[in-house]
Write a structure and sequence with these properties.
Elements lengths: L1 H19 L2 H4 L11 H5 L13 H4 L5 H22 L5 H8 L5 H25 L2 H20 L4 H26 L8 H29 L4 H4 L1 H15 L12 H7 L2 H20 L9 H23 L8 H4 L2 H30 L5 H7 L1 H21 L3 H18 L8 H18 L2 H9 L2 H38 L7 H6 L4 H5 L5 H30 L32 E3 L13 E2 L2 E3 L11 H20 L16 H4 L3 H15 L6 E2 L2 E2 L9
Antiparallel strand pairs: 1-3, 2-3, 4-5
Helix pairs in contact: 5-9, 5-10, 5-12, 7-9, 7-14, 7-23, 8-9, 8-12, 9-23, 10-18, 10-19, 14-15, 14-23, 17-18, 17-22, 17-23, 17-26, 19-21, 20-21, 20-26, 22-23, 23-26
């Protein structure tokens, strides 16, 4: 027994010696630095640059006044953006009348949505690398500048420029509102708070058409944008004094690094491609024919730029605005497609339902705002209900199935309206549409927060908001194309009313330009065009329903279920960063880089530890590993020395070919292995050779 113990100890010492005196270390010379020990190898690496990610449990303090003041600031900024999205809906006809530009109606919404969608991805990168507080506050200031330009615009072109500036800044506000709330509220409690998020959004949407209609009829439509100035000032002041996000030290970077972080190569292809798409949709059928070389060229440029953008994202994933590893995740892919179609359906209803009331029902902007209350009030109610139900059952997919189902039914019924439809019909149809919309507004974002690792959540949220804005921009232009094309088709036979007159006149002004005997014909043409727009919205809702069937069923009560920040764990282990004991295929290792050896086992090379893992925990874990190994030797598992041909330097190990030695080892293993796994944190002890009797 003494000989056995001495041989085992000698083998163990030999393994340790090979760990600290590897051949490559000797080749470095006497002046080379000593190799770090096990604890130093497992010490945590510096955290990646990114937005502060404090512990959710530390920030979730619902009894703290600062907690609610921060949320109040957050919701005020959200209210500001949501109000600006809908306040223009009832004012669009009057704006187009004043500027004599019916053809620009689509741009009043598309300019805002286009710049928002383009800037959304950039803000996703900015929030990741720069101070969240100041990025958010600068966005509020720029938004105020854009609103001031819209209010003072002397022409339709200047107005569109102001909308573009405001839309660019709203992307930063919208992303910031969600990113502020995410670290403050744990995932399993987040649906209720996102219900509040949806409620604020809905209340702003309710007040938007009413305020817009009141300003348009009682004063001027310009106050629809001047009203943003005091609201933005209050939000800015509250944020400065009450919001103190955790600070993070970031290493200095050169100007070139700052530029690369924003993916400039991708933006070179993405921006012109999106603009070409919107121009083609805006001009086709109204300014130019669909088979015009200009329209064909725009679509071709869009396709080429999009293909180039995809290639850039694949080749440069580290700086990509749309990282392939994020967008190819199943729930992210289907969730963003769901958001794209749902947002397009929503914006088509928000913009063209007021136009239907003002042109078909011949009501003023205030009444048209009041008549759209069923659509938005039901949205507020259902968003709260959806948040409560989702938090109760723990799954978000049911809401994603209910939302487009109700919306498609409601929008299909809206397409049956005519000038003589009673109020009970259009009110009930709007209520059904809005109730479905409220169920689906926030669910895709919650899914992204559940399936992605924390380091990718901000990118996923930015992508989701991007497709939401892009969907609104694209399908608002589609609605304008449908409206213009059908009006030209239906009214071109009226004497003195050509296609250019129909396109350039305002939405409500056109009725007054035709002779009295043709007034009913104009109303019928508007009703026919709006019916087709509502049918298009129904088709988009049905497309979002198909996307919902592709979502993964993940429970928010189990916490975030995406892969860890680094590589996924193996064999059910808790992390990928501890050393893994595995049986050796040759002894001693042919390549010293395989790691130290002990009793026929090879210690795999230690990988980088999980970020933030305390050094004290690493020491205790290593001590526990050594203790378990000692217990195994004391219990007799390793009481017999290995065969002579396995002992380094023995004649048997030198004698004979490596092939025959390896075959002998494999035969010994196949007959003597028994199951003796030991759980060591994130490690797994493989089966050990059983001694012969």
């Amino acid at each position: 027994m003494a000989t056995v113990s001495q041989s085992t100890a000698s083998l163990s010492s030999s393994g340790k010696s090979s760990h600290h005196n590897r051949p490559e270390d000797e080749s470095k010379g006497a002046g080379s630095m000593a190799e770090p020990n096990d604890v130093e190898k497992l010490s945590p690496s510096p955290p990646p640059t990114g937005p502060p990610q404090p512990n959710e449990k530390d920030l979730y303090k619902p009894k703290s006044p600062r907690f609610w003041l921060t949320l109040l600031c957050n919701f005020m900024a959200l209210f500001l953006v949501a109000l600006d999205r809908t306040i223009i809906a009832t004012a669009v006809p009057r704006i187009s009348d004043e500027f004599n530009a019916l053809g620009d109606i689509g741009w009043y919404g598309s300019a805002y949505m286009l710049t928002t969608s383009c800037a959304q991805l950039v803000y996703g990168r900015i929030y990741k690398f720069y101070d969240m507080k100041w990025v958010f506050l600068v966005s509020v200031v720029v938004f105020e500048i854009g609103s001031a330009i819209c209010g003072a615009a002397p022409s339709s072109t200047v107005f569109i420029v102001g909308r573009a500036i405001a839309g660019m800044a709203s992307a930063g506000i919208f992303s910031g509102c969600m990113l502020i709330m995410i670290p403050m509220v744990p995932l399993h409690r987040r649906p209720a708070f996102q219900g509040l998020f949806g409620m604020v959004f809905g209340i702003a949407s309710v007040m938007g058409p009413l305020i817009g209609g009141g300003f348009t009829s009682g004063a001027t439509w310009r106050w629809c944008f001047y009203i943003n100035l005091p609201i933005g000032a209050v939000s800015f002041i509250f944020m400065v004094f009450f919001w103190n996000p955790p600070k993070e030290k970031r290493p200095p970077a050169s100007p070139g690094v700052h530029i690369k972080r924003l993916d400039p190569i991708g933006m070179i292809f993405f921006l012109p491609g999106t603009v070409c798409l919107l121009l083609a949709l805006q001009w086709a059928g109204s300014t130019y024919a669909w088979n015009s070389w200009r329209i064909i060229l725009l679509f071709a440029l869009f396709g080429a730029c999009t293909a180039a953008f995809i290639v850039v994202q694949i080749l440069k994933p580290k700086t990509a605005m749309v990282p392939p590893k994020v967008i190819t995740q199943r729930s992210v892919a289907f969730g963003t497609a769901f958001t794209f179609f749902l947002a397009g359906s929503m914006l088509m209803m928000v913009y063209y339902v007021p136009i239907w009331f003002q042109t078909v029902k011949q009501v003023d902007p205030i009444k048209s705002g009041i008549y759209t209350l069923p659509l938005v009030l039901s949205l507020v109610v259902s968003s709260i209900i959806a948040g409560i139900i989702t938090q109760k059952i723990g799954y978000y997919v049911p809401s994603m199935l209910v939302a487009p189902s109700l919306m498609s039914v409601g929008e299909g019924l809206m397409s049956t309206l005519n000038p003589g439809s009673p109020s009970s019909h259009w009110a009930a149809f709007q209520f059904l549409t809005g109730f479905g919309l409220g169920f689906g507004m926030q669910t895709s974002g919650l899914a992204i927060q559940t399936v992605l690792p924390k380091e990718d959540v901000s990118t996923g949220i930015a992508i989701n908001f991007f497709v939401q804005q892009l969907g609104g921009a694209v399908f608002t232009s589609v609605g304008q194309t449908i409206l213009s094309n059908l009006l030209v088709k239906k009214l071109s036979g009226i004497p003195g009313i050509g296609g250019h007159v129909i396109v350039n006149e305002g939405a409500t002004q056109l009725t007054n330009e035709v002779p009295p005997e043709y007034k009913d014909r104009v109303i019928g043409a508007y009703n026919y065009a709006c019916q087709r727009i509502f049918l298009a919205a129904m088709g988009l809702a049905f497309a979002s329903l198909l996307c919902a069937f592709g979502m993964e069923w993940k429970s928010i009560k189990k916490g975030r279920q995406g892969p860890p920040p680094s590589q996924p764990p193996e064999n059910g282990s808790q992390g990928p960063n501890e050393a893994l004991l595995r049986p050796s295929s040759s002894f001693p290792p042919k390549d010293p880089s395989e790691g130290p050896t002990t009793n026929g086992l090879i210690m795999a090379k230690k990988e980088a530890p999980a970020e933030g893992l305390p050094r004290q925990h690493l020491r205790s874990r290593n001590s526990r590993r050594e203790s378990l190994a000692s217990e195994g030797r004391a219990s007799g598992v390793l009481t017999k020395p290995p065969p002579a041909h396995m002992i380094p330097g023995s004649p048997a190990s030198v004698k004979g070919s490596p092939r025959s030695s390896d075959q002998k080892i494999e035969q010994d293993r196949g007959s003597s292995y028994h199951s003796a796994p030991t759980n060591m944190g994130s490690q797994e002890m493989k089966e050990l050779p059983s001694p012969a009797a």
